Amino acid sequence: MQRRGALFGVPGGSGGRKMAAGDVGELLVPHMPTIRVPRSGDRVYKNECAFSYDSPNSEGGLYVCMNTFLAFGREHVERHFRKTGQSVYMHLKRHVREVTIACDAVLSSKSPYRKQDPDTWENELPVSKYANNLTQLDNGVRIPPSGWKCARCDLRENLWLNLTDGSVLCGKWFFDSSGGNGHALEHYRDMGYPLAVKLGTITPDGADVYSFQEEEPVLDPHLAKHLAHFGIDMLHMHGTENGLRDNDMKPRVSEWEVIQETGTKLKPMYGPGYTGLKNLGNSCYLSSVMQAIFSIPEFQRAYVGNLPRIFDYSPLDPTQDFNTQMTKLGHGLLSGQYSKPPVKSELIEQVMKEEHKPQQNGISPRMFKAFVSKSHPEFSSNRQQDAQEFFLHLVNLVERNRIGSENPSDVFRFLVEERIQCCQTRKVRYTERVDYLMQLPVAMEAATNKDELIAYELTRREAEANRRPLPELVRAKIPFSACLQAFSEPENVDDFWSSALQAKSAGVKTSRFASFPEYLVVQIKKFTFGLDWVPKKFDVSIDMPDLLDINHLRARGLQPGEEELPDISPPIVIPDDSKDRLMNQLIDPSDIDESSVMQLAEMGFPLEACRKAVYFTGNMGAEVAFNWIIVHMEEPDFAEPLTMPGYGGAASAGASVFGATGLDNQPPEEIVAIITSMGFHRNQAIQALRATNNNLERALDWIFSHPEFEEDSDFVIEMENNANANIISEAKPEGPRVKDGSGMYELFAFISHMGTSTMSGHYVCHIKKEGRWVIYNDHRVCASERPPKDLGYMYFYHRVPR
């Protein structure tokens, strides 16, 4: 790779001509004070532009600022120079020499000692010296086919079976980059039993075996015999794709094949709107959601349509700005700049490597993921996540960081009318709330192939009991009409506060659409918890319609003959011994009862949601906190980290006590007044507070890092008008922003999930473009031949005229 200096703002400095070393030295002298040497903790960007997906492989290469260590493509480096005055950049450019392609192909070829499966990337492991004479205790231990957990801490992932005594214990991060408490290693130190196999990796071809004594992964030539000692038959253990392993291959492989359209010759697609996203390691949930989001015109206009203005007004570090990174991602997906058919040299390279299929590289969302997931305990990890939860997280970020009057997430926003009727007085209460997606229950009782399902279940249980191969999958077939009917059916409410009785009473709740959104997102509630609180997934096929009519679900309001309940709020009752403790909780979040938090987390709820539940219920125990979770789990910020004013967080946390989501993020007037009293404009204060989630200290930092904010008069006027509009709306409330219309919709995208739970598996997205379906499977974008619309998890509909 070629590296050379580049100077901007200096005659001849960026013209590309070669200069003698003395000339370069003379030009650098006045700029030497600005050149820094990276220190520990400095973020150095040398692989990707902050505004685009240009890299050292791009035609213009990459320019790294020698002061900020931010990198820029040729199109954007001068923007950074104009904004900062930094003149010295290191130019990185990688050149491909066609004459060396054959040699490179030889050097990068796989070892003949590796498995020949092109998707297998195993190291050449040594045979453990303990394998031939391994002692195995005759203690009667038999390992079940599922439901494993650590014997010491109840963890259900990263579990290792000790091949001497059959203990199932958790590993530590250095075994396979996943979490654990190190109980498998502790057991070895206590007992000296050297070999363990990772549960979930066992296939007829082998498994992941680790030697504690040799401190490395090893091969066990007698693994089948060692596993049989504990009742595990390797020949009946199977693996699924993407490294996810289990002993029920047929159900999941079938799902993987159908959703990914395996076995069908798929034609790669190139050009604007057909750019894939590289998988960063369980980032497919993010990729699928973002592909669907940027197929919506409102998001395209809000970000890509405003690209020059957003980039020009980005902060000095654009990698830490939401709107900049959204615009960068949108432009990368839609421009076609990173989705071009292979050129001659690339085709030669593929032929040399015997890769005859055109290779699609896609773009890497690493910078985007790092920003949108920072401070979020789930999305910042490398674990698989729920695409629905990420969708709501993204909506929350869009709401918080909207520019001017544009808020593209309004297209998803709708009002839900909830009607509750008191079972004793027969009186009713009507309330409205904001929502962003329709959650459709799975009506398993309406399956059209019940007899087939019963026969399959009996055969499956018998096969498991006798350690025989499992029968071929039978998937439940559910009519969409039955799921829609289940959505509209009344729901019993046991602890409804009846203001007429001034006491809790039983009630019946029904929900209807008080407004229909422009874009309707439908989530199929496939995921649930078993009796042991282990997440599981309904394996169902639902005949989702291309045209969806939900006009019959329109809310009707108070009906003739109905009597409303009095508008009297229930009293707030706090046990005497908890009042002081609750007040302390609202002052210092550090005293949260972690034991209650862990009890809730073990049920499968997000850790941050559990912390908020314990916090807002005043440490009154897991049972009370569980009730808080049930009430708030549908809110978009349910899994957001707990933040409080004065602790570096949002000023809206107090509102969360009363169920408010805080998505509008209108800054409190008292904080706006503090900033304006310092001499800043009102629109500056509002934008700064919105960009920092209403944190005063961070808002001031934001203002000082955006000195150019006032230069664009149109931008200032738009922001001022938007601020004035918000003031008017506060003085004269007009209700939440909704785009009501007809309830007739057409399907244009859906996201599908493969695997047994949202914590594992893989997501792909299908989008209808230019009259045909296209499959987006990470970096691969192809014309779809058989879109599996019946197996989707999230469906995206757009409104059509009735």
From TrEMBL:
Residues 275-800 form the USP domain. GO terms for biological process: autophagy; protein deubiquitination; proteolysis. Zn(2+) binds at C150, C153, C170, H183. The keyword Ubl conjugation applies. It catalyses: Thiol-dependent hydrolysis of ester, thioester, amide, peptide and isopeptide bonds formed by the C-terminal Gly of ubiquitin (a 76-residue protein attached to proteins as an intracellular targeting signal). Its EC number is 3.4.19.12. It is found in: Cytoplasm. It is an enzyme of class 3 (hydrolase). GO terms for cellular component: cytoplasm. Keywords: Autophagy, Cytoplasm, Hydrolase, Isopeptide bond, Metal-binding, Phosphoprotein, Protease, Repeat, Thiol protease, Ubl conjugation, Ubl conjugation pathway, Zinc, Zinc-finger. It comes from the Eukaryota. The active site is at C284 (nucleophile), H762 (proton acceptor). Residues 591-632, 666-706 form the UBA domain. Residues 126-234 form the UBP-type domain. One of its GO terms (molecular function) is zinc ion binding. Belongs to the peptidase C19 family. Deubiquitinating enzyme that removes conjugated ubiquitin from specific proteins to regulate different cellular processes. PANTHER family: UBIQUITIN CARBOXYL-TERMINAL HYDROLASE, UBIQUITIN CARBOXYL-TERMINAL HYDROLASE 13. Interacts with UFD1. Interacts (via UBA domains) with SIAH2 (when ubiquitinated). Interacts with BAG6; the interaction is direct and may mediate UBL4A deubiquitination. Interacts (via UBA 2 domain) with AMFR; the interaction is direct. Interacts with UBL4A; may be indirect via BAG6. Interacts with NEDD4. This is Ubiquitin carboxyl-terminal hydrolase. It comes from Canis lupus familiaris. The lineage of its organism: Eukaryota, Metazoa, Chordata, Craniata, Vertebrata.
